[in-house]
Design a protein that fits this description.
The structure holds 2 protein chains of 2 kinds. By secondary structure, chain A is mainly beta. Chain A is built from no helices and 11 strands. In chain B, a hairpin with a 6-residue loop joins strand 9 and strand 10. Chain B starts with a strand and ends with a strand.
Chain lengths: ~120, ~110
């Protein structure tokens, strides 16, 4: 158990809908990262938050947004869902987020999203 | 487009044999390299964080080296055991914050 929690574990929804995925980082970790793993694709970095501020952005679609709250939990919002958004979404956390300080990331169990 | 490449894609190893595989990355915009171990139905688990050229890290029977000038890292497993069966991912940090690029992984299967 990494100490990172994600809810829900599974989510089934229809095209055009909007969903929210939630992540609680390990106690003391200030950085939260979101990743997407689609079928036959590697882990794709979506976005990073550090202590409430967005710090790095990957190939995140405009239909997707995220935020990190004062209690450091984070939410990933996916809207106008398409079939291709079906994927495993991981959240990870680390103590800090700066590249000059080595930071191992601790991954949550993931949320499997199925869009029908 | 994945600039971080891992080879081979998969390999089968006999129990007790040693093995190694490669992660290649662009040597420009390099900040750090992370190795993860990912077992089926679980989440990726951090193995090593490497930042300096010439870095060598070791955890039990697993070790890694880093060459930032030529853009590659090797992961070695000595005396492979069935519990080493997993996908090994490398991820390159390409900015001073958290912009990671992951490789597609090397799937290792250790047979008794």
């Amino acid at each position: 158990d990494s100490g990172v929690t994600q809810t829900p574990k599974h989510l089934i929804t229809a095209t055009g809908q909007r969903v929210t995925l939630r992540c609680s980082p390990r106690s003391g970790d200030l950085s939260v990262y979101w990743y997407q793993q689609s079928l036959d694709q590697g882990l794709q970095f979506l976005i990073q938050y550090y202590n409430g501020e967005e710090r790095a952005k990957g190939n995140i679609l405009e239909r997707f947004s995220a935020q990190q709250f004062p209690d450091l939990h984070s939410e990933l919002n996916l809207s106008s869902l398409e079939l291709g958004d079906s994927a495993l979404y991981f959240c990870a956390s680390s103590v800090s987020g700066g590249g000059s300080v080595p930071n191992e990331q601790f991954f949550g169990p993931g949320t499997r999203l199925t869009v029908l | 487009i994945l600039n971080v490449e891992q080879s081979p894609q998969s390999l089968h190893v006999q129990e007790g044999d040693s093995t190694n595989f490669t992660c290649s990355f662009p040597s420009s915009n390099f900040y750090a390299l992370h190795w993860y171990r990912w077992e089926t139905a679980k989440s990726p688990e951090a193995l090593f964080v490497m930042t300096l050229n010439g870095d060598e890290k070791k955890k039990g029977r697993i070790s890694a080296t880093l060459n930032t000038k030529e853009g590659y890292s090797y992961l070695y497993i000595k005396g492979s055991q069935p519990e080493d069966s997993a996908t090994y991912l490398c991820a390159c940090l390409t900015d001073s914050w958290g912009k990671f690029q992951f490789g597609a992984g090397t799937q290792v299967v250790v047979t008794p």
